[in-house]
Amino acid sequence: MPKFSFKDREDIKNNLKSDDYELVIIGGGITGAGVAIQAAASGVKTALIEMQDFSEGTSSRSTKLVHGGIRYLKQFDIEVVADTVTERAVVQQIAPHIPQPDPMLMPLYDEEDVTFNPFRLQVAMDLYDSLAGVKNSKFANKMLSKEEVIQKQPGVMEDGLICGGVYLDFNNNDSRLTIENIKQANADGADMLSHAKAIGFTYDGDKINGVEVEDALTGDKFTIKTQLVINTTGPWSDTIRDLDEKKDYPSQMRPTKGVHLTVDNSKIKVNQPTYFDSGEQDGRMVFVIPREEKTYFGTTDTDYDGDFEKPTVSQDDVDYLLRVVNRRFPKANITLDDIETSWAGLRPLIDGNNASDYNGGDSGRLSNTTFDELADAFEKYNHNELERDTVEDMLADVASNTSERGDGGPSSVSRGSDLSISETGLITLAGGKITDYRKMAEGAMKQIIAILEENNDKKYTLVKSKTYPVSGGQFDPTRVEESIESFANLGASRGLKYADAKRLAKVYGSNMSNVLRYFPEAEKYAEKYDIQLSVALGLVYALEEEMVYSPLDFFERRTTFLLFQFDRMQKIKDAVAQIIQEHLGLSDEEASAQKEELEAQIKETSLAYLKD
């Protein structure tokens, strides 16, 4: 695995200034990372620039699930759900150390405007299981009585509780998934530069032939020469299109803000991810999810037109989520002061479509007759009385008849993606969601390769991305537990405590052997700065092979310290800052600026501006 360190940044910049590229990707979130890995693995001369740290925007601020979008089945958005559950399985295959199965509990209440009643939930879950291919597995759904829901999740609101269901979902580490794609693209020959902002384009006639770039750290400006440019900047997609002076673009994006809050699990303990109607009769559903001795909950879904780089949590956001969660868990009594950490992220939704993956509005309700016909057809299919093709044709008819209607609210904007190519050659890949990132990238790459083959009279072989693992994922995805155990034992054999080795193995997967290469340096830093050896080991690896530049890069996007290990982070933040300064040879001025950045983010994440 080639080095991927901030120490190599000038060499990468020199490559970008001097080489001729076939593809430049603007945007280093999950969408751009997905395009980069496929482009590089397919032999395309590739560069990627990101104006912040990799995954710093939307791709580190999600609900942290790779989920199947069962919410879509309220509207029978079959195509979306089929794509999503299929892709979820693919992501688990190519990044087996990251998404993990984590079944979801959905309690149902006798209230107005609920998303599912018991009958519809059972039909939806059965359909969902068939689409996901888990119908006869240990992950098959199960309907629960009221008593079983209470037994499974003590403390849940009992008043009005009818019953519930459990179905398969997957947890995720969004920023880790992004960086593992980025690292593999780098290993396959792509040149990747963070803190590099696109500020314009150059042209050959009316066709784009280069990207003008400003180094956000030094102010240096330069041009990357390229045959093609793809815009994968999520909420910033319209901003990048506006840089194209040869073309007027209509606005395409309608970002919405989603907020999540974290408390200690002593305040509210859930035994598994739980998903329920808000009880506000607003069409929203809310997650409550356990993670690392903490519990987090969200999300909101509100239109957003503020600073895309710094979406913040408002008092209204907090009030809403506390009201919903305290209603569903009456003994929790969570207050603002109980909130340890928070995050706000933007969803890159495309205006004019419908059915948000999180809080889909009514994108065309089915009549009772239509629904009953579908339920009957699905039941016949389950008993081998109807062919799958017949059911799929029925579902496709329903999907096509409902997919373009919506109520216009932020919760009814589609998570679907859009691929467009302008007359100037600017390719824009927008919308979508983390679960779909590989499929979105594959669709874009088919177009890109077709253009390059025509222009260059050269053949490219598109990588089989369904089976091409990301960095750290080079092990048997059907033997995850055994593989992680093996990686952990490797760490323990080098002198790590087994529990620490297991934590590292879960984070780094098959890269564990690479991590352990830095044992001597990590030991030196651990002793010098009085920091835990496993933390020092992960930090040195991140500095050498994950392009970490600042403590915030490490705490927020390479690890979960900022969000889920907040108290522990406070104890080690000075040591981590000192190691980064020493290892990268940063000036006192740079180190001081980084510390100020971290402190500002700590105040924002802990909601100090609301608590004060």
UniProtKB/TrEMBL annotation:
What are the UniProt keywords, alphabetically? FAD, Flavoprotein, Glycerol metabolism, Membrane, Oxidoreductase, Transmembrane, Transmembrane helix
Q: Which GO terms describe its biological process?
A: glycerol metabolic process; glycerol-3-phosphate catabolic process
Q: Name one Pfam family in it.
A: DAO
Q: Which Gene3D superfamilies match?
A: Alpha-glycerophosphate oxidase, cap domain, D-Amino Acid Oxidase, subunit A, domain 2, FAD/NAD(P)-binding domain
- Transmembrane regions: 21-41
Q: Which reaction does it catalyse?
A: sn-glycerol 3-phosphate + O2 = dihydroxyacetone phosphate + H2O2
Q: Which GO terms describe its molecular function?
A: glycerol-3-phosphate dehydrogenase (quinone) activity; glycerol-3-phosphate oxidase activity
Q: List the InterPro entries.
A: DAO_C, DAO_C_sf, FAD-dep_OxRdtase, FAD/NAD-bd_sf, G3P_DH_FAD-dep
According to its UniProt record, the EC number is 1.1.3.21
The answer to whether the entry has keyword Ion transport is: no
Under SUPFAM superfamilies, the record lists: FAD-linked reductases, C-terminal domain, FAD/NAD(P)-binding domain
Residue stretches making up the FAD dependent oxidoreductase domain: 23-353
Q: Which residues form the Alpha-glycerophosphate oxidase C-terminal domain?
A: 465-590
Which co-factor is required? FAD
KW Transmembrane helix (keyword) present:
yes
Q: Which PANTHER family match?
A: ANAEROBIC GLYCEROL-3-PHOSPHATE DEHYDROGENASE SUBUNIT A, GLYCEROL-3-PHOSPHATE DEHYDROGENASE
Family membership noted in the UniProt record: Belongs to the FAD-dependent glycerol-3-phosphate dehydrogenase family.
Q: What is this protein called?
A: Alpha-glycerophosphate oxidase
User: What is the native source organism of this protein?
Assistant: Aerococcus suis
